[in-house]
């Protein structure tokens, strides 16, 4: 044991005992072929190794994979055909009046006002200055004018407005909605973004809106209205269909797509999912044909003419060459009506729907007064009456809702006769080849925090639902006030998260002060979620114990002592996140850590926390003690205490923190890793963390000692806590039983990996580049990415500053550069963590890095010579992409919500992402670029009026898997990598990759008991509790959500209550695993390669101690059909989900009296 004297602040002297770290300090591998070799030579070497290596993995045996199904329009094929050589939407239109000689052209005009729940103003300011005046004036005007119609979508504003309404206003509003004058479309809390959102968060915001509408209005939406999201997702269409909506309207699609569809008259179609062969997922979709959704771009192709028919008094003059709107009089009505009718007829030629035209009449923040309503309505009523009175005009015009329009279309033409379409509408461009791919990455820290809140809220909802329905808690009559207060916090967190899914929030495209306001809401949601989770854990561990229930009651309702604090990453209202920290205040103190596996499958967990030992180190000095950390737990059937593998080392914060170089207090921070802890489905496990002390000649602490190269730590104690070397440690590889990682000693970045199970060497290098904004008329902003080409390398240190930490649990290499801290980890134990390479970046783009966008580039030896790659669609499915030279580079960037991959005939590299970002691949074979952060100094002319310069150090986390894939799943030509079959297999993740992804985005929850909790109360807490049957769900089933509702709507009859007064819903997803494997997974079997044969999961016994026996299938938002509509959907004893599908159910007790 080596003892080295360490000087702390205040002249505290501590001696460090290295223990096992002695091996890593003195042992050095023999020099290898990598020493002194340039990066180029290294690439040649690893490629040669891969080609000549004799050992190859055994072939995978898999059945033929389900192919992508057929459709009349496939967006992937359309992209091959289009030339993408125009600069704006240009439509030449002519018509023949004889088209309408047999039936009139039906025109439906729909007033609307688009309200952003935050953009240039905060949500609250928009509510008071825009939304409330509009809603008030609309309520009064529609009440007085029975022909008037209106559509609205943002339930977040309706909820605040409703709270301040009088009884008369509420009664009037309910009548207007019931009678169809006022249509509420989509019914979500917001109109969500469709690029960066996770499908589960979208379901949350839809459910929150739908339940509010059901609770207060008894209303269920049937149509969707999405006029402003910047591109449209096929997963969004699927979610809306599963939520019960039959018809949807979209708008922002590439202008060349609009032009092509208009010429082909295919702007209306049945949007279908790629796995669907029957049309069961079809949703009827209407696409607006022109560039905008305002009055000036909705009546027809001539914007200058349409502008003349905006009578609302809006002081906006977008077309100075066009005459101003003229009030309709008896003198001009004939001429004005004919001019408007001409535009309607021209617009009708773009659709093949039985001669029905839809005309939105509104814009952002319209109808703010009854005067504006009166001017618009009166003039249009005169025009309508005139046109309808003239048979020779062969037209009938009316005010109507979106449902009115779709019903007219279906009356004139069967929906089944419209073309089917597969694919999505990314990446969006509105004009001049201006692609909206910048927002995929704008404000990445906000995006990452949103994903953290999703995970924490999900855990909180699962724990609360189980605590609420836990039989011992029911027997003890758990205080209803406690449950309702916890539910209020859940509801608040749901709504804050839902608000952030807005298409100007998670996109990062709101003004700086608005983004700050959103972050406050997310931080509050995170606090509420963790409070609910901690309290629910206490109620479960101490179920049936009155003292525990009283303590939780006091905490939640009377600001009593907190029983369980989160031991997750700390996300302040501003700044970068920091690792969780547990403080020890005395040598004899024991801290109790709680782990909760929120998955319905077994997994291993590695504990990672920082320990603050400031006070105990001072005590250790005076008592001359050796301090070591021990981690133990009660596990197994016998519940005997077991000691876990655990390791202590100086925290990396002693070298550098998220905000830059180390802070003074970091000298007392030590990083603890322990595990792996194998956790069964929904298992709660208590760990004991204690400091063991023993007499010693000098005061010491037992830890592993990292190696530093070319680093002079600023912490005074750091030189004694680290081994400083003169030889670059990256000349040696980082090798364990899973993989051998070779690093470039010049940059410090990863260069290649060898799969130790197969012996195959894979070139896999990481580098970083910068795209600078092009300085021209159109430039990058919050929305747009317009780069100066080519990119340039990110400035690096001439010699890398390196920290290498080797231990029995994980090896990690961290390199420090001027504005980048880059870490690569290889876990030696624990699944699924050890199946992947983990990459963490902390990128600081604060001043002076204006107009810079930094990307991380992965360069592999994979030969995807057809330039294809795959990105996820809202984390639910994958879409095949192709890099096209005919499209500018910025148009080849796509949203990555969770993952992306590229492959050749034998291998696949999959990048799993803990946060949504932009991604591009295919520019060169085997390359993938991931955008990490962007700082743009100016606006891009899309209305925001400012750049994005509020950067904070952005932490991004990824996992990289290299897998062998089955050629039987995807028949390809080995030479070119091209498919040799006309049937393209349905893309997707392997089971191992999906397991690693869910583990990344839904990590095991960590909580720590308060040090002030009494020993009497601790004795009443269980230390090991299983909430689900031990085998959980089948491997291809995923527990997306377990939610409790307190609905008093008549739709939720008492027979649909899980327990009196509340409902319990479960959301399941069934994957369709791709055939492939890493060969590193010990517990993976052949059954994990494909979908399981279990089409049904028995409800009874699925969750322990719950009075649940049956399930009723509902919409995706947990809204049951009316009893008279529900004859074909009765409660069953099993949960049935088909591959690729999402299904929601209400869980019911034994023998519900179903009507």
Keywords:
twelve-stranded mixed sheet, 22 helices, ten-stranded mixed sheet, single chain, 1155 residues, Immunoglobulin-like, Substrate Binding Domain Of Dnak, Chain:A, Domain 2, disordered N terminus, 7-stranded beta/alpha barrel, alpha+beta
Structural overview:
Residues 434-522 form the Glycoside hydrolase family 38 central domain. The structure is a single chain. The protein is of the alpha+beta class and 1155 residues long. Among the domains are: 99-424, Alpha-Beta Barrel (7-stranded beta/alpha barrel); 439-563, Substrate Binding Domain Of Dnak, Chain:A, Domain 2, CATH 1.20.1270; 1037-1070 and 1094-1149, Immunoglobulin-like, CATH 2.60.40. It contains 22 helices and 54 strands. β21 and β22 (660-661) form a beta hairpin. It is globular. The chain starts with a strand and ends in a 7-residue tail after the last strand.
What is this structure, in a nutshell?
By secondary structure, the protein is an alpha+beta fold. It has 22 helices and 54 strands. Among the domains are: 99-424, Glycoside hydrolase 38, N terminal domain (7-stranded beta/alpha barrel, Alpha-Beta Barrel), CATH 3.20.110.10; 439-563, Substrate Binding Domain Of Dnak, Chain:A, Domain 2; 1037-1070 and 1094-1149, Sandwich (Immunoglobulin-like), CATH 2.60.40.
